[in-house]
Design goal:
about 350 residues, alpha+beta, five-stranded antiparallel beta sheet, 15 strands
Length: about 350
């Protein structure tokens, strides 16, 4: 009996193996995440000690927030993609952007600052829609028009100007995110984000703010390619400190930029300006106190960040719920392994002559 090759069965077997292995890999990642969450006890912020910690609380913004690209919502982390073409799963997105900024987590005892560089994120899907049959955009799509960041606590004048800003009406030219897709094309929009008010569980290393090697870099993350532990960068920083060319004094390093409120045009004290420069108005006493709290972190203050031996993990929800969700991923991964094995057996049977004659 000759072996008969059936392309349809071979294709299904290959797809089953690929899908099963993908589910298995995702499930193993979920198992590791669930184990790490469950094996670390929750610490109250007020009694937190230096070392590996797990804290759970509500997100509060720090200096700035992000503006998500697909729905223009304030957040501290987002991952957005646009796929052009059919509605099936795509291996590579036509547009993909992932960003994060530093934020604060508050529990019943206090608050702690989170520096997200190098973090692993688990954010809920907030928007997952496709254009209609006639190319009409989905309800809820509100593509970002301005910058990707905004002041967390805008003053009255800024808030009024934002409310009065004119937005273009639909049809007044293609949005920059959609240029190149043509008109009426089918697009799939996905956006996951974590926003102020969301409950999160954070597992990472607590350390004094003065021990953070590069606060400015650790406070923002863009795409997974940014490595918080680049050995070459660390060696350059250590060499600069040893040579005395890198200072730990913000005022000496950054000049006027180190004054709280200077970046938004309302410094808390008089900056050193060129004689011909326009003098900036000083912030009112109430605003000055708020800027000081927002922009200044005492060297001994404990913060949470990523470390080589303790990667930073930020997941949505309270610890038990987050751990259960990732255990469910592991169970699905086991089912994926069964699918891959069954598909491989079906392919082997076909090649061995079990299908057809």
């Amino acid at each position: 009996m000759e072996s008969a090759f059936i392309p349809q069965i071979a294709g299904l077997a290959g797809a089953g193996i690929a899908a099963g292995l993908w589910l298995l890999a995702r499930g193993l990642g979920g198992y590791r995440t669930a184990t790490r969450i469950a094996d670390t006890g929750t610490s109250n912020v007020a009694s937190m000690a230096a070392g590996e910690v797990r804290v759970a609380g509500v997100i509060e913004p720090s200096e700035v927030t992000l503006i998500s690209p697909l729905q223009s919502r304030p957040c501290v982390y987002y991952r957005a993609t646009i796929n052009a073409g059919d509605d099936g799963p795509d291996l590579r997105a036509d547009f993909q952007e992932e960003r994060a900024v530093g934020f604060t987590v508050r529990d019943a005892t206090g608050s702690v600052r989170i520096f997200p560089r190098g973090a692993r994120w688990d954010a809920p899907a907030s928007f997952d829609e496709t254009t209609g049959s006639f190319g009409d955009e989905p309800s809820g799509l509100d593509l970002r028009l301005g910058g990707a960041t905004a002041v967390a606590e805008p003053d009255r004048e800024t808030a009024i100007a934002d409310l009065l800003a004119l937005r273009p009406m639909p049809g007044q030219g293609a949005h920059p995110l959609l240029r190149g897709y043509g008109s009426g094309g089918r697009r799939h929009y996905r956006e996951a984000r974590l926003a102020p008010g969301d409950t999160v569980t954070v597992v990472g290393r607590a350390l004094p703010f003065s021990d953070l090697a590069d606060p400015a870099e650790a406070d923002i993350a863009m795409e997974a390619a940014l490595d918080a532990n680049d050995p070459e960068v660390a060696a350059d920083l250590a060499e600069a400190r040893a040579a005395g060319t890198l200072t730990d004094d913000p005022a000496e390093a950054w000049g006027n930029a180190a004054i709280p409120g200077f970046g938004i045009g309302k410094p808390v004290r008089s900056p050193t300006l060129d004689a011909a420069a326009h003098a900036l108005p000083l912030a009112a006493a109430q605003d000055a106190a708020r800027y000081e709290r927002t922009f200044r972190i005492a060297p001994e203050t404990l913060i949470i960040a990523s470390a080589p031996d303790v990667p930073l993990l930020i997941v949505h929800g309270v610890p038990d719920t987050a751990a259960d969700r990732h255990r469910d991923q592991f169970i699905i991964g086991l089912l994926g392994a069964v699918l891959a094995i069954a598909s491989a057996m079906a392919g082997a049977i076909m090649l061995g002559g079990g299908f057809g004659s």
